[in-house]
Amino acid sequence: MVFFKKAAFIILFMSLAGMQSGSQITGKVVCFGDSITNGAEVNGQSWIQYLSQKHPDIDFVEAGQNGRKTADKQDIIPVLQAHSNADHFLIFLGVNDLKDGTPQMVEQCVKNMRWMIRKVQEANPTTKITILAPSDINLETMAPVNVKKKYNENTKRSLVQLRDQYRKLADDESVQFWSLLDAVSPQNYVDGLHPDTTGQKQIAEAVWKGLTQLYR
């Protein structure tokens, strides 16, 4: 009799846990970023579109803009005004700040990110905020136009530093942190900078994994 009671309790607990992990990822997820978020080089089919197609019950908002840097932090204001009721706010920025990257550039990215985090908190203190460390670059397949823009070895080195500094910032500000630095396989870049369709799907998978872990 005791055995059956314990078994029934375990089954009930597992059922409730499963319902909770699957049902709580709801509402609006605002994705604020640059050309990767905007779907550059893949006809607008970014990781957000893949998530929207796979999880239509969730309102994924694409708020990407080509060329956006963390230095363009004021861009977040109209997005916050339009989506003040967001349940989640993902900020995926940094690579465009790091052309021929330096430690000083990384430091400025962190300052800008902190400013944006606090603006989101002011707009809606209940919004769950996540910093996304940018995906890597592939120097071997870097297109000439991006080489001229100085996406180079210094950029690649700075992206690693930025990941580490973003993680620390997330701890300091009590927000979430997910690294996308290794999310995209090296072969899945169109021009060394922007993920191709497979790379975008890899980002979508990494972001969904992060979202589900929030409710475990």
TrEMBL record:
Keyword terms of this UniProt record: Hydrolase, Signal
Domain SGNH hydrolase-type esterase: 31-201
A Pfam entry, by short name: Lipase_GDSL_2
GO function terms (MF aspect): hydrolase activity
Signal sequence interval, chain numbering: 1-19
Name the UniProt record assigns to this protein: SGNH/GDSL hydrolase family protein
